[in-house]
Structures are given as structure tokens and as C-alpha cells.
Amino acid sequence: MGHLGTTGSQVVAFCGCSCARISTGRGVQRAWRNRGSHPYEAQRELFDERDFADVADLGFNFLRFALNYRDWIDPNDPKRLSEPVLKQINPGCRAGKEHGIHLLLDFHIAPGFGQIVPPERTNLWTEREPAELCAYQWSVFAERYKGVPNSRLSFNLFNEPDDKVKPADFRRVTGHARGPLGVLRQKAAGAWILPGIITPARKKITVRGATFPNDGTTHEVR
């Protein structure tokens, strides 16, 4: 199985009462990444049916796919998306249906934003081009999965914007009719959408009474 991390014993009810059917479930996250010699070229299928069987056997019914937009764009034309790469997500959607696992598609790294080092060269929250590119890519996903019921599939626009993102910028990007949230609402009516929540950046993390620096280092907790 690929990288798998638990996100807690309960799935967060990210859209209120309409999400009650899965908010009492248990969820995990799977890091999705094209493993081709070049991000734009798909070399092999990423999903194995056993991955989903294992998740279900562990008692989970919710899976968040952490996606990286760089995997499917043409470096020379960011609006030209690789169909061979994008189609690799489809088997995961089918396997989720078969094993009773709700799928949350997450732009873990979106154009102009991601919790990564070094950061994106552009800024989704203050620049027009990455915001338009992000909206365009979400419109492609909305078209691809139009008709899939929201009991099986939902969308996470961004991964955990921190307090470096100004609330006014966040509202402008997510509130614009042609922004990522707007295009999803237009093209995927009835879809469950998690825009993202601005969360404080933490310099330290405390686990079981032990405090560690939040610097990307892996620590063993006993």
C-alpha cells in the first residue's frame, strides 16, 4: 500500500448536517503521486484493489486523496492537462465505490499554494494567474466526475491554508463566481465541497505529552 496516514478516529463533518452519513466514520489519507519518469507522463497505474480492501478491512470508510497539480500539467502549457495521468484517479473512484469508501479529492498542492518547502513560485491568494489556473483545473475535475453522487465523492479545494493567508484574500478567491469554489458549484451541483479552513501555523506539536518542532522531521512517539 502507498503512504497512508490516519487523520484521527473520526472524520471531521466538513459540511454540516448534509455530511452526517459519513461524519461518524473513520478516515485515512493516501498520498497520490504519479510515478512516471516525468510528472506529465504516466508510466504505471497507482492504485491496487488491495489498497482499498485493506482500508475497508481496517474499519475505515473515508479516504482523502492528496493530489499534486504538478503531476498532470504540461510545464510548457499549464492549461494542457495529461489525460494519461488524470485517468489514473478513476480506478480509485471505482474501487472506493466497490468497498464502500467515500473519496475526498484534495488539491494538496494547488497552483500557487501548498504547505511545501520551497513554496510555490506564484501566490494563489494575491495573483490572478494561479487563481484562474486553479479554477480551471477544478472545472476539469467537475466535468470528469459529473454525475457521481455526493455520497461517494467530495472535493477539498486547498490543503489547510494557514494564518499567513489573509482572510480577505481567502474570501476573495473562494467567493468569486469564477473562482475554484464558484466553478465547482456551477458544474458539480450538489457536490460536497470543502474550501479549506485557515488554521494557525504551529511551530511545535505536542503528542502524548511530548513536544516536537513542526519542521517536517519524523519523530518516534513511544
What does this structure look like?
There is one protein chain. The chain has helices at 20-23, 49-57, 83-86, 89-98, 128-144, 167-175, 180-187, and strands at 4-6, 27-31, 62-68, 73-74, 77-81, 102-110, 113-114, 153-156, 192-194, 204-207, 210-213. It is α/β, with parallel strands linked by helices. The protein has one domain (4-213): Alpha-Beta Barrel (TIM Barrel). Strands 1, 2, 3, 6, 7, 8 and 9 form a seven-stranded mixed sheet that branches. The model is unreliable at 1-27, 33-44 and 216-222 (pLDDT under 50).
Observed structural traits:
222 residues, alpha/beta, TIM Barrel, 7-stranded mixed sheet, two-stranded antiparallel ribbon, 7 helices, 11 strands, globular, disordered C terminus
How much helical structure, as a percent, in the residues?
A: 25-40%
Mean pLDDT: 75
Number of helices: 7
| Fraction in beta strands | 15-25%
Report how far apart the termini are.
24 Å
Rg value: 17 Å
Name the CATH architecture. Alpha-Beta Barrel
Low-pLDDT windows of residues: 1-27, 33-44, 216-222
Principal-axes geometry comes out as: globular
What is the count of distinct domains?
1
CATH top level label: Alpha Beta
Q: Report the strand count.
A: 11
- Note the run of SSEs as H and E: EHEHEEEHHEEHEHHEEE
- Characterize the largest beta sheet: strand count, sense, and whether it forms a barrel: 7 strands, mixed
